[in-house]
Amino acid sequence: MVGSHGRHCVVEADNGTRLLCHSRGKKSAAVVGDLVHWRTTGDEGIVEALQPRRNLFYRQDELRTKSFAANLDQILVLLAAEPEFSERQLARALIAAQAEGIPVVVGLNKQDLAEPFARAWERLAPYRRMGTQVLGLCLKPASSSATGGVSVPTGLEALLPLLQGKRTLVLGPSGTGKSTLINLLVPEARALTAEISQALNSGKHTTTSTTWYWLDPEHRSALIDSPGFQEFGLHHIAPERLAQLMPDLAAHLGQCRFYNCTHLHEPGCGVRDAVGLRAEGELAPQIDENRYRIYGELHALLSQPQRY
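Above: the chain sequence. Below: its structure as tokens.
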């Protein structure tokens, strides 16, 4: 499935043809990236069933669940030096991805803004230390060369190999350059978006919120564009599972005195002992204090009674 909105979705057949479909029931359970069984009914189609998923990336607050996409190989979290990104939202997205076993690459855009970029790059140091791959990007094309050509935007030479042969969800707040990236890598993206929008805009239907783009004629590599978000709920994560989904904390879980340690106040806690502590020969702490603060805030939030 390559586009969705409520009970309406756009499916792509094996021959590349895209068709507007309806699902059975009041609301579709299918999301972009799902493999579905469908049949035609006149000029449209009906989704009959979903095939089993490898994974589903989603967020959940107290009121509703928002699914981004299914059957992903990786997520590209796109941030920018300006406006300043929210580390809390970044941490939440990484936790949700870890819960589904989906690898994440972080791209930091606007490398041309030297001072803001340097500050943002330093803020991402704890994420690089815990194994997250972080790429510096400048998606704005550089100035024309002496020969009259336009040079490749900075960072794409490192990013492109990571996209080959994979289904990648592009995630991030508005203003980070997601649309710029899509238009750079998929020149026909505007036409494809218009095609899907036209299908979904019949009657009262609005445009799709998430869109699938192929990066190659062989249909081996795909980018999935998602809408920007301001909040990222994690109410589907149990508080006792939270530390396991934060790699820098998880590295110290076997060092706690108590098997049911919350890592908040217990004596003999390996996680608390590692906060701000520098190992021999290391210049940076094993667990960054701000990362631990985010853990404490999330643990308190997820421990509150659910109100539905």
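The chain has nine helices and 13 strands.
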